[in-house]
Amino acid sequence: MEPELFTWEFATDPYPAYAWLREHSPVHRTTLPSGVEAWLVTRYADAKQALADPRLSKNPAHHAKDAHGKNRTGIPGERGANLMTHLLNIDPPDHTRLRRLVSKAFTPRRIAEFEPRVQELTDRLIDGFAETGRADLIHDFAFPLPIHAICDLLGVPAEDQDDFREWAGMMIRHGGGPRGGVARSVKRIRAYLAELIHRKRELLPEVPGPGEDLISGLIRASDHGEHLTENEAAAMCFVLLFAGFETTINLIGNGTYALLRNPDQLARLLGSLADGADGGQELLDTGIEELLRYDGPVELATWRYATEPLHIGGRAVATGDPVLVVLAAADRDPARFDDPDTLDLSRRDNQHLGYGHGIHYCIGAPLARLEGRTALATLLRRLPDLRLAADPEELRWRGGLIMRGLRNLPVEFTPP
Ligand code: HEM
């Protein structure tokens, strides 16, 4: 029987519904809770192809309008020039130009240099609850870590980071989109970022110093003499901040939960971290990828819209139709992964779609990997008898249309 989507049960465990869709209706027409009609793409091969299909645009202006001429996604289209005209809402050639500029500033070297800071933040957060023997790993750990990490990397001064924590909390609780309190938060972030970028531009030294922050790097980046405009720089900071918050919270939250529910895999990782010749690095690296595949933070890649009539998996998609690629369903496709519902931290053949695919592939993946690795390794090294302190039935999931993650994760352990 066709499963009900977007219910409470679905948010708690969407995988049985995804298995049904993959088998019976792999490209599925559905009505989203907002009333918008959209296609869900659930098989790995179709998903990968759709993510790289240039006929599917990221620009919400391509969404078919309703009878009143309104774009019904709730995402502002062209009129919304401001923070929303960022990488995830634009197509080439603008996307190509902006992505090239940000890649010049957001380099693997900058991320590698940031490792000690992520370690320090992680240890400080664990220090905050280690003595008590209990914690809510979402509230006390997974939530603050990515916010402070990305703020530090961008160069948001420490005294302003609590404001970001509040704004981010508001956006996550109310699920993105420019509505109500969220609209107010976006407005405050816009004003704040404009001012910060302006100040950094004024103070920018001629030659970059060691450990220069990312905003200064963005201001400095140029391509054939072209620089980011102030608005583009602000929208870029906004997408880096917000694409990196909830995703990384969910990587740490969903990932730790998956380990606690799979004691054999947890024991393997603990053993490898304690006694492995490489300090557990190899299993940690393959393990983070497997946790992303098994229960990744991003349920659906963000919206795409057909710019011309096309077929996906044999179904006819009309111009203007929204297409949602269900990464979480694709990553459990038995046609692609052996034993897909089993968590295997040393899985080798693991080209999951958790970070997307094609030109919008996650630019923050190296930072997310660094944070995920550091968070899990430090947590397990310092609190090796970490265990769940609640019945799994009592846990609440935040199921959105884009992200899926735990609202709370109570744990207990022996204080070190
Ligand atoms: C894009 C996942 C962390 C910044 C994406 C996409 C996915 C994704 C699936 C592609 C969306 C699409 O094609 O529609 C994740 C996951 C993360 C993570 C699972 C954590 C585990 C981060 C972090 C940052 C970040 C930490 C920033 C520092 C971005 C940006 C894009 C993006 C800017 C847009 C790239 C473009 O459109 O060219 N991410 N992300 N992400 N991500 Fe991430």
Automatic annotation (TrEMBL):
It comes from the Bacteria. One of its GO terms (molecular function) is oxidoreductase activity, acting on paired donors, with incorporation or reduction of molecular oxygen. InterPro entries: Cyt_P450, Cyt_P450_B, Cyt_P450_sf. SUPFAM superfamilies: Cytochrome P450 (SSF48264). Keywords: Heme, Iron, Metal-binding, Monooxygenase, Oxidoreductase. The keyword Methyltransferase does not apply. Belongs to the cytochrome P450 family. This is Cytochrome P450 hydroxylase. It comes from Streptomyces fructofermentans.
